[in-house]
Amino acid sequence: MSNTPMAASPLTRAVLEIDEYASGLGWDQPARLFALVDTAQLRAQEPALAAQLGLGDEPDAAGLTPIEQDEIPTDKPLDEFLGTIAWPEAVVGCALTVERLMLPPSAEAQVPDDLDEAALAKWVARHPERQEVRMTVAVLRDGARESALRLREKDSPTEVLTGSELVPGLAEALAATFAD
Q: Rounded to two decimals, what is the model's pTM?
C-alpha cells in the first residue's frame, strides 16, 4: 500500500488500508464493516480467494487482510447491529469505517442538557464548529486496537491521525463482537 508506513504494525497497516479504500469511494458513504484475517493463513487455506483478492506470494506472515462484509442495515442503530454479530474463528479481528459529525472539545460545554438523541444530532449538524470526520476503527481478538481519523476539510493521506484510543466507544463495541 503506497501510503502505509511499512514499519507500522499489521493492525495499523490494515486500518490505513481501509481508510485509503474508503477515501477512494468519496464522502457521504454508509458505514462499512470488515473482517480481518491473517494473510498467510488465507493464502494457505483459501488460495483461490487470496488470488481473487490480489494477494500474491510475497511473504508477509504478520499481515492482515481486510474483507468487506455485506452492507450494514440502515434501519437499526449501529450499536444494535454490532450486537448481532458473531465471527468465525478464522476472523482474527474486525474493522468499521463510519462518517460522523463531531465538535471540538471547546464546543462540548455548549451542548444543551435536555436534548434527546435526535435533537442532539440536529444541534450538532447546525453548530458552526462542527467537523465531518471518517473514523476507521479496528480490533483484534487479543484486544489490540487501532483507529484512523480523517477530517473532510483535510482530506489527504498525510493528514490521517492514528492511535489506539481515538474512538474508545466504537472500539469497545467492535471488541464485544468477539465476546463469547
A: 0.84
Within 10 angstroms of residue 151's Cβ, the number of other Cβ atoms is: 15
Band the pLDDT of 151: cuts 50, 70, 90.
very high
CA distance 32 to 81: 12
Residue count of the chain: 180
Q: What's phi and psi for 8, nearest 5 deg? A: -65, 155
- Give residue 139's identity as a one-letter amino acid code: V
The partner residues of 36 in beta bridges, in order of sequence, read: 66, 93
Q: The C-alpha cell of 141 is what?
A: 481478538
24 contacts: CB under 8 Å, gap ≥ 6: none
The residue whose grid cell reads 492482515 is: 64
Give the integer Cα–Cα distance in Å for 159 and 131.
14
Q: What is the DSSP string of the chain?
A: -TTS-TTS-HHHHHHHHHHHHHHHH-SS---EEEEEEEHHHHHHH-HHHHHHTT--S---TT-EEEEE-SPPPSSS-HHHHHTT----TTEEEEEEEEEEEE--HHHHTTS-TT--HHHHHHHHHH-TT-EEEEEEEEEETTS-EEEEEEEGGG-SGGG-EEETTSSHHHHHHHHGGG--
